Amino acid sequence: MARMNLIIMLTATAMLARSSLAGSCRASRKCCDGKDTDCAVQEADLNSIIMDVSDEPCYCDTGCLEMGDCCPDFKQFCGVHDCEVSAWSSWTPCSSSCGPGTSSRSRTVTRPESNGGVSCPDLHQDKKCSGEGGCTRHKEEPKLITHKKHGASALRETAMILPGKYSQLTEVGEEEEKYDVRSNLKTFKQEENNDQYCVVFKVEKAMKTCRHNKETEKLVRGAEVCVSCESKATRPHLGNRCTGHGVENKTTRFKNIITPGCHGRWTKTAVYDKCPCRGGQDFIFV
Hints:
This protein is 13% helix and 24% strand. The protein is rod-shaped and about 115 Å long.
């Protein structure tokens, strides 16, 4: 029994040694240039009567890289190294500070290819970008208007206002159409004119309700607000001005039509062709 076990162990050891050497460039001590059929390594004995169909030879020549039939240890034993590169750098800032430009990134070779290894990939890439940081738009300063007249009725008028987000005025380059919430009002008129202006008021008194809504929180005593009179809110019978336009240095009334209970009094201080307040119009006349 012991003898049988010894024979089995010796057979297994021989098979293991044979399999470890099979298909090995190191075991066959072969390294060839180009495509060389003499540089083939085959596991089975070529003179064997019975051959395994799956037993295909592998090669230890540089041509095997192209054919894909290299022995497993070909690169290591024959000193074949693929090109190795570093990680990509960060993208560079856009070449244009305003408008279309390009941005690029690069990487470097950390180990060049040798003995037929895989060549190096692209080391430089470009992509399109658009610079905006240096873009400046010419913006005219608001101009005072002194020719806007009003009648005695202006003192008795109450300015009906909406938050500035409902304004139909757009910045230069914006062409998106906006929904006009005033189109639901009976007093709304579709016809337009270009007689637009902005009135600056100083708030003298405002109900507490105004402070409780983000859209009307600017209506506090002592604050100055800009109210835009846009073409759709002007009244021809009032000389193409908005109702509640006010009277210089006189106190008149206002009322926000979206926030119930938000109303008060303010004093008209000036009229401009464009709203001088930071962020533009705070409110619009209806």
